[in-house]
Amino acid sequence: MRLKLILSTVTIMLFVCLTPAASTETYYVCPETGDDSAAGTEFEPLLTISQAVGRSTDEDVIILMPGIYSGLDNMNIDPSGKAITIRGSDPDCPESVSETVMDGSAEEGRAFIFDSGEGPDTVIEGITIRNFTGFAGQDGGAIFTTNNSSPLFRNCIIKNNSSQRWGGVIWVGQQSHPAFINCLIIGNNASDGGVAEIDAGIATFRNCRILSNNADLYAGFLNCFRGTANIKNCTVIGNSAEKGGAVSLTHGGGVHIKNSIFRANLANNGNNIFIEKGLADPSESVIGYSNIEGLKQSVYIDPAFEEPDAIIVWKGDNLNEEPLFVHFDLSDDPADWDVHLQSEYGRWCTDSQDWVVDPNTSPCIAAGDPNSSWEDEPWPNWKRINMGAYGGTAFASKYGNIADFNLDYSVDYADLAEITGMWMEQNEPQIYDISGSGKVEFSDLAIFAENWLWQKD
Fold first, then answer.
1. In order of start, what are the domains of the chain with their CATH numbers?
2. 0.90 cut: is pTM over it?
3. pLDDT value at position 345?
């Protein structure tokens, strides 16, 4: 009996070890040269997104080559619960993102439908989603999420989508938790929630530029109808509605805003936030370490609340100052706005693809939550994250002197002691490796010497 058991165990182990792991596939799609009967390789691409999604299984990647994807086979894309990635050919390249376009102008419908419990490992990345209008009488112009679906949108441009009802870009329902990271969301509109209508779900926006969206009644940006929004390191400017130029809470829910900039949003009531007493009281909302034009004066809270001052908690140092964007003029095309923050110490220039210096420094630099991670920002950064869409990224505007390690506005013996104490070390974050050689050595001391005895004016 014992021998049979041992043999059975060995057989099972051999079966497990010898059974090949499921392999992932990469499918290529090209709207110009593709063929839906093709193999779906780089040199024999498919023609439509729906064909690629239909062939895919968990962990597969679908690469959309540059071009315009339109028509019914390139819209209402439903992953059916599969953990797949649909992305452009170069998601980190702005030119690739702008040239890889899902366009809904020719047909009624949405770009994506998520209703089968998709998680954050269902990823849409590095594409433009434009001109979708949803379905008549339904919510969510470009994206619909329900049934615990939580897709991730990253490095996308989402523009000129609309809904005659709620959520010009997205409707969020049934405990769904979609997230938008490093996206440009511009020129969308709806009756309520020019970008998003959040109903019984949670939506996250991080490092996003939310520009010039509009709603007829509630919330140029997002309306929390029982749901909640998390807004972190976003730039929210030039949005408008009748009630709540940027955000509204209409039947409960709440909003958490951190390290963000709200500017030039416009409404008859609540230029930035409108809170109405509805079917349920809203949950506690928090605004922290952000630059909010008008501060409390830009927030309308329904006087029907028994304790209106308790509806929002203002946390930390919030500003009401001109953020000093590189270029922002309401009379110009919002697509031309440049919301990088001006800096005398170094600011990324998109046109030249290089660091430049400005005559002024934005008060939003090194002004975010001191507990937020600053390590992904370039040095010098005063060891504190920036507010706005580029805060916490490699494109954050700089602050301070590269050799002022102890942050006392001077480069002296204290800083010399710090850098020599890290001699030949490979440290993270690499603030002492100022030459970028990979370790602290003579090249770093040479740069340090160039900055010796620097002091802030």
1. 25-315 (2.160.20.10), 323-331+339-400 (no CATH), 404-457 (1.10.1330.10)
2. yes
3. 97
